[in-house]
Amino acid sequence: MTQPVNVTVTGAAGQIGYALLFRIASGQMLGPDTPVKLRLLEIPQGVKAAEGTAMELDDCAFPLLAGIDIFDDPTAGFSGANVALLVGARPRGAGMERGDLLEANGGIFGPQGAAINAGAADDVRVLVVGNPANTNALIASAHAPDVPADRFTAMTRLDHNRALSQLAQKTQTPVSDIANLTIWGNHSATQYPDIFHATLAGKPAAEVVNDQDWLENTFIPTVAKRGAAIIDARGASSAASAANAAVDHVHDWVAGTPDTSWTSAAIPSDGSYGVPEGIISSFPVRSTGGAWEIVQGLDINDFSRGKIDASVNELVEERDAVKGLGLI
Ligand code: NAX
Fold first, then answer.
1. Which pTM was predicted?
2. 294 annotated as ligand-binding
3. What's the pLDDT score for residue 98?
4. What letter does residue 121 receive in the DSSP assignment?
């Protein structure tokens, strides 16, 4: 039998964790031939609930699930991790300023980065889901000097999937016929879902849509504010769709993206498209040989340029803020 892959999931007792762990254990993330060992990392108050989730995982009798361990210590939790899903984060509380939020998360993602540096497997791949995801990933990476920076990524796949679905509905096109959509920038309300390189069954999406008003005043805000709309409707934030996107992100990272389309992920910038080097920004990406690469050579029109710059500027501000706080 293949050696099991160690998957560490933080925030395992939370609502995304509850939706995510069963998908991983069933083989949907790493494929039907890859056994997994789950390492659930929680804060001490979350351990009991994580034990309950582990009991349910046992009760599924997943053939690929080779073991479950529960930790409240990051160094132990990340030891030997091949895949690390950083889901647990500090949410914004009442009256919390952005600096307070970044500082509170620095207190989580700094030590977790250090723990990954200390004991994760050499091939570790990290996906940060917990918000503010891009900057949390930057903090974790800064504390893991021995881990290549490109192993730290943040999740914009949920935004990507939301954009696919909105475009499919608007144009009455099956999702499977849509290719080359892009989310640029930050996983926040400034993100830019870009349809200018997308195709619908091979036809340019922008020409099929041909409705700049819909693009600017319906599509972009619907995608960017979808999280708030879900909270409004469900009384709780997105969980199953977030877990699904995390599964998609890691699946494509490990198994490769199909030749027919690229996807979106927040990865460290190499300076492409004028995005300052080092910040973790969403790009059009392909994965080959287990590594993400930014799709090069796209023409960026003036409308897109303005939107990309606005979101990237927000990321630069966040980076400068965490630098000022001594978190990176
Ligand atoms: P929950 O509050 O349900 O669960 C979070 C869990 O994390 C809790 O069980 C908590 O005990 C645990 N936790 C907190 N600090 C921890 C630490 N230092 N180590 C280990 N565990 C810790 O939140 P949930 O709905 O699961 O959301 C988790 C995160 O995902 C939030 O930050 C949320 O904002 C973020 N999201 C990110 C999305 C994305 O697209 N990037 C979309 C969905 C979601 O909003």
1. 0.98
2. no
3. 82
4. -
Q: Which atom of ligand 1 is nearest to the CA of 156?
A: 40
Note the pLDDT tens digit of each residue in 255-264. Answer: 999 999 999 9
Kindly give the number of the ligand 1 atom that is closest to the alpha carbon of 91: 32
Q: Please give the distance, rounded to the nearest whole angstrom, from the Cα atom of residue 216 to the centre of ligand 1.
A: 30
- Average pLDDT (133-160) is 98
Alpha helices in 143-238 (DSSP H): 157-171, 205-209, 212-214, 220-224, 226-234
Pairing of strands 203-204, 65-71: unpaired
Per-residue pLDDT for 124 more than 90?
yes
Taking the alpha carbons of 115, 121, 126, 130 in that order, is the dihedral positive or negative? negative
Mean pLDDT, the chain, rounded, equals 97
Q: Which residues line ligand 1 (CB under 6 A)?
A: 10-11, 13-17, 41-43, 46, 87-89, 91, 108, 129-131, 133, 155, 158, 187, 227, 237-239, 242
Which residue owns the Cα nearest ligand 1 atom 30?
A: 130
- pLDDT at res. 1: 59
Mutation to probe ligand 1, out of 40, 42, 70 (largest number of atoms < 8 A from CB): 42
Measured from the Cβ of residue 63, the count of other Cβ atoms closer than 10 Å reads 11
ipTM above 0.95, yes or no: yes
Of 155, 98, 115, 92, nearest to 324 (Cα)? 98
Looking at residue 310, its pLDDT comes to 98
Domains defined along the chain, listed by start: 5-154 (3.40.50.720), 157-318 (3.90.110.10)
- The mean pLDDT of 185-198, rounded to a whole number, is 97
* Separation of alpha carbons 247 and 212, rounded Å: 33
Q: Supply the residue whose CA is at minimum distance from atom 10 of ligand 1.
A: 11
pLDDT at position 156 is 98
Alpha-carbon span 166 to 163, nearest angstrom:
5
